[in-house]
Design a protein that fits this description.
The protein is mainly alpha-helical. The chain folds into two domains: 2-78, no CATH class; 107-238, Ribosomal protein S7/S5 (Ribosomal Protein S7, Orthogonal Bundle), CATH 1.10.455.10. The chain is built from twelve helices and two strands. The chain has helices at 2-8, 11-19, 22-31, 41-55, 64-72, 87-95, 107-116, 122-140, 144-155, 180-195, 203-215, 221-234; strands at residues 159-165, 171-177. A hairpin with a 5-residue loop joins β1 (159-165) and β2. α7 packs across α8 (122-140).
Length: 241
C-alpha cells in the first residue's frame, strides 16, 4: 500500500504544499534530486522503514527519511509568522468595541410592518416599508430605522383617557399612561392616516413623505397628540395612584 501511494506521488507533494515549510522543501531535493529518473525499490524500503519507526514512536531520527517525516508531523516549528494588525485596523477595532451585534429583525420595524399589513399579505407590507425606507435614506441621508424610532418617540402620546363607570348614571374620564408599544401604535396609526391624504399613487412614496414630514415635526399627528394630552390634563382629578 505504501509503495503504491509513494509511486503515484500523492504523499510527498501534499506534505510540501500543506505546510509550506522551507526545511522539508530543502531536505526533500537532497534525498531525491529533480534529475533523478525513477524511485527504486531500495528507496521505497527506506521510506517504509522510516514510517514504521515513526509509527512506533522513535524519538531520535537518524536517516534523512526519518528526519523529513519527523519534520512534517510537527508543523508547529515552521509556523512562525504571526499576525500583526495595522494602526488602521486597531482604530477600527476600538470603534466597534462597544457595538452590539444587530438583531436579525428589529421589533419596532416588525410592529410597523404588521400595522401596514392587510389580509395577511406580509411580504407586500415588507416591500412597501423597504421602499419607503430607501426613499427616506435618499432624502435625509440617515439610517431610516433610527429615523423611524426617533419619529415614533416624538409623535407617540404619553397618556390617553378611558371612560369608566362610577356605579351611578354619570361616567368619569380617567387618564391612563401608555407603554412604549401603545405609544408607537398611536404614532404609526397617525402616520398611516396622514399618508392617505398625499397625492402620489404609490403607497410607499406617500408613506416615506409622511415619515419625513413627521420626523421634521410637521405631521398632523402632533395636533392629535396635543389634543389627547389636553383632555388627559383636564381630567387629572380622576387619576388614581
Amino acid at each position: 500500500m505504501f509503495k503504491s501511494i509513494i509511486r503515484r506521488g500523492s504523499l510527498i507533494p501534499r506534505t510540501c504544499v500543506r505546510f509550506n515549510s522551507s526545511k522539508p522543501a530543502q531536505l526533500f531535493p537532497q534525498i531525491y534530486p529533480l534529475n533523478k529518473e525513477k524511485i527504486t525499490e531500495e528507496d521505497l524500503d527506506k521510506w517504509i522503514n522510516a514510517l514504521k519507526q515513526l509509527k512506533h514512536g522513535k524519538k531520535i531520527h537518524e536517516t534523512e527519511e526519518e528526519i523529513y517525516l519527523g519534520q512534517i508531523t510537527q508543523p508547529e516549528q515552521f509556523i512562525t509568522k504571526k499576525f500583526e494588525p495595522s494602526l488602521e485596523q486597531i482604530e477600527e477595532t476600538y470603534q466597534y468595541k462597544n457595538k452590539q451585534i444587530p438583531l436579525k429583525s428589529d421589533p419596532t420595524v416588525d410592529n410597523f410592518i404588521n400595522l401596514i399589513m392587510r389580509h395577511g399579505r406580509k411580504a407586500r407590507a415588507q416591500k412597501i416599508v423597504s421602499r419607503a425606507f430607501y426613499i427616506v435614506q435618499l432624502k435625509l441621508r440617515k439610517d431610516p430605522i433610527e429615523v423611524l424610532k426617533e419619529t415614533l418617540n416624538k409623535l407617540g402620546p404619553v397618556v390617553t383617557t378611558k371612560s369608566m363607570s362610577t356605579g351611578v348614571a354619570k361616567r368619569k374620564i380617567v387618564p391612563i399612561p401608555l407603554n412604549e408599544r401603545q405609544r408607537n401604535r398611536f404614532a404609526i396609526t397617525w402616520i398611516l392616516e396622514a399618508s392617505k391624504n398625499r397625492k402620489s399613487n404609490d403607497f410607499a412614496v406617500r408613506l416615506a413623505e409622511e415619515l419625513i414630514n413627521a420626523y421634521e415635526g410637521k405631521s398632523s399627528g402632533y395636533d392629535k397628540k396635543a389634543q389627547m394630552h389636553k383632555q388627559a390634563t383636564q381630567q387629572r382629578a380622576y387619576i388614581t395612584l
